[in-house]
Amino acid sequence: MKHQEAVVDEDWEYRPLQLPPGVSRRAAATQLSINAEYGGWELSTVRLYSDGTRRVWLRRKRQPATGLPEVLV
Fold first, then answer.
1. What CA–CA distances, in Å, run from 10 to 14, 23, 50, 60, 68?
2. Distance from C-alpha of 32 to C-alpha of 29, rounded to nearest angstrom
């Protein structure tokens, strides 16, 4: 399974994921469930190619940036 860097949109953060041809449907579902449970990701798009490879896009709402507190001088 390959992870790539997340792509950031205005409101959403996307992460592409590639599952190799030998991964069963059940194993793929388990892997996606783990990403959802612990990373806050949800399924956006799945493409199944003729060689059995799955390309998946996961997404999650962007968290507001929390900067460091300002120091008063």
1. 11, 33, 33, 12, 22
2. 5
DSSP of 13-53? EEEEEEE-TT--HHHHHHHHHHHHHHH--EEEEEEE-TTS-
**Residue 3: pLDDT over 70:** no
- Asked if residues 38 and 54 have their Cβ atoms less than 8 Å apart, the reply is no
Whole-model pTM: value is 0.70
Task: Give the end-to-end CA distance of the chain in Å, rounded to a whole number.
Answer: 50
Among 48, 63, 46, which residue's Cα sits nearest to residue 11? 63
9, 17, 44, 60 from 53: Cα distances, Å? 26, 11, 17, 23
